[in-house]
Write a structure and sequence with these properties.
Its EC number is 7.1.1.-. This protein is mostly helical. It has twelve helices and two strands; from the N terminus they run αααββααααααααα.
Length: 332
């Protein structure tokens, strides 16, 4: 087998594995979120379907597959139909340039757990994950429903604003490391616990986490949905499998975001003491992923004006200040 054929086959297998694993993890995350929220609210959560309620995932999947798929008669039908697909595709494509685990040897071949190790991986991931919002905007606009349009418009304003915050935070990381490659950023933090970038860029870490909550539409910074104001927002008219595609795309983006935070700030998949790197990667990513649930349970929903004022009056000035300080530190 030629090197190109082996590379193509390896990339195809990796793509299939990533889609299968992360689609399954997205479903498992819904169960985890229910259990965590139930614990915070002194409830039991899912416990009737299967042991510890684990088969609830299968029940939900059957419901989504068998529920009637309704397309409103006054909607832009083609755009309405493909918007959920855009959400899921963009979320999974963004995973292609993210190194998941340390490299390992299989049948004499060195395998890198990454589909494409490109030298601008950080730009690729941020760009493709940002495209997920086109699905939200197009779905809300095509629904021809006032609640959907309001949710899409609110989300559009927020994502444009907070993408700037996240980008400015990441530029500081790139200035320190000198590379857009996520593998290089991971290797930069390989000298031990105190080489983690969270200690060198604590403000960038906080800014990026806040921007991540906006990009993944998570409480308390979610503007696209609000039961008391705009019902289900962009997803008001969606049902069945199409709604499920939005759901899978959102949770896949959350998982990708948690892995990205681990790679950028928490030492990535470097080993820690006697703990292997792959275990560290899973533990740290799971901890960041837990923050999504904790924030939803602990904090109230912010008003749109509060979210936007926080962005332009506090976060962007802080991001610019952090960038200037980092530039001075690099020059000196």
């Amino acid at each position: 087998m030629s090197d190109f054929a082996f590379f193509a086959l390896e990339a195809l297998i990796k793509c299939i594995i990533i889609i299968a694993i992360f689609a399954s993890l997205a479903g498992l995350a819904t169960y985890a979120e229910r259990k965590v929220l139930a614990y915070f609210q002194r409830r039991i959560g899912p416990d009737m379907v299967g042991p510890f309620g684990l088969i609830q995932l299968v029940a939900d999947m059957i419901k989504l597959f068998t529920k009637e798929d309704i397309i409103p008669s006054n909607s832009q039908k083609f755009i309405f139909a493909i918007a959920p697909l855009i959400s899921a595709i963009c979320a999974f494509v963004s995973l292609a340039a993210i190194p998941m685990l340390p490299e390992f040897t299989l049948f004499g071949k060195v395998i890198q757990p990454i589909v494409a190790d490109i030298n601008v991986a950080l730009l690729f991931v941020i760009g493709t994950s940002g495209l997920c919002f086109y699905a939200v905007f197009l779905g809300g606009l095509a629904s021809n429903n006032k609640w959907s349009i309001l949710g899409a418009a609110r989300g559009l304003v927020a994502i444009i604003s907070y993408e700037s915050v996240g980008a400015l935070a990441l530029i500081a990381i790139v200035m320190l490391v000198g590379s857009f490659s996520l593998v290089d950023i991971n290797n930069y933090q390989s000298d031990g616990f105190f080489s983690w970038l969270i200690f060198k860029q604590p403000l960038a870490f906080v800014l990026f986490i806040i921007a991540l909550f906006i990009e993944t539409n998570r409480t308390p910074l979610c503007l696209t949905e609000n039961d008391a104001e705009i019902v289900a927002g962009y997803g008001t008219e969606y049902s069945g499998l199409r709604w499920g595609m939005f759901f899978i795309g959102e949770y896949a983006s959350m998982i990708a975001g948690a892995i990205l935070v681990t790679l950028l700030f928490l030492g990535g998949f470097n080993s820690f003491w006697i703990i292997p790197g792959w275990i560290m990667m899973i533990v740290k990513s799971s901890f960041i992923f837990f923050w999504y649930f904790w924030a939803r349970a602990a904090f109230p929903q912010l008003r749109p004006d509060q979210v936007m004022k926080m962005c332009y009056l506090i976060l962007i000035p802080l991001a610019v200040l952090n960038l200037l300080i980092t530039a001075l530190a690099v020059l000196l």
